[in-house]
From TrEMBL:
Keyword Hydrolase: yes
Top-rank lineage group of the source organism: Bacteria
Keyword ATP-binding: no
Cited PANTHER family: FERULOYL ESTERASE, UNNAMED PRODUCT-RELATED
Leader sequence segment: 1-32
Lineage, opening ranks: Bacteria, Pseudomonadati, Pseudomonadota, Alphaproteobacteria, Rhodobacterales
SUPFAM superfamilies, per database record: alpha/beta-Hydrolases (SSF53474)
Residue stretches making up the Dienelactone hydrolase domain: 147-263
Name of the protein in question: Alpha/beta hydrolase family protein
Organism: Roseovarius tolerans
A Pfam family reported for this protein in Swiss-Prot or TrEMBL: DLH
Gene Ontology MF annotations: hydrolase activity
Amino acid sequence: MRVLRVLLIGIVGGALALVLAALLTTSGTEQAAPAPEHPAATAPEIRPGTLIERPRGFLTPAAPEKFDYSPSAEIARQSTRYQSDGLSWHALLPSGDAAAPVVVLLHGANRDGLSMLDMWQRVGRTRSVVLIAPDAPGETWAAQDITAPRIAAMLDTVAATRAIDRAQVYLFGHSAGASYAALLVNRGIGPWRAAALHGGYGPPDQYRPTPKAPPLRLYLGEHDHIFSVEGAQAAAAALAAAGHDTELHLIPDHTHWFYEIGPNLAADAWGWFDNLDDPF
């Protein structure tokens, strides 16, 4: 009997030990499991932009007598040339004291800022718009030419002598300047409220999805021999997919030549800039 009693005590004791060990193991496992503190971080959702394509026949310019252009002597006299943060640039400042909107103008290859001021000078004077036109350091624009500090330096320099509205800073580019402008806007380099482009765009695969993407308008001549309509359609679709509300305006019987259409195109682009808050 004594042997049986010892055996039973041993069995019961062993069972209790196993139960206790299991409880301790479970308790240790529960303590080791970290409690979630925050939900997993998620990337911001990118809303695709709208895409509109429309013909703009009334913008078709007269055929030029010759494809030859130089900035007018008047614009050279009336504008001011600056140097800031390693960049040369020109400005045309309208009269008045009220804070003025600003349009930064990017020229095409082998041109300079004066050619853009010349095309936009009527808008600048009649609509009280500050015009800023940098010169590309080389024959055309390179990735490092326009940086956020350089844009800020140009705006600060103008603001020291003429009040500007920093909530209304726009970008316009022609040809290589248009391609570069689209990239700046898509990458968030600058305080742009919107951008308009003429005769230029970049490869569709360079545009990245971006939150708070500014709207863009691309003008293209249907007979542009450098940038095709099909390429413009692909670039516009990519910009819209990246989040930009995008308009493609095709101009019948218009080529790549900017210097006949320039003043009327500037007026049309400014009308769009100035009414962005209005419905189509």
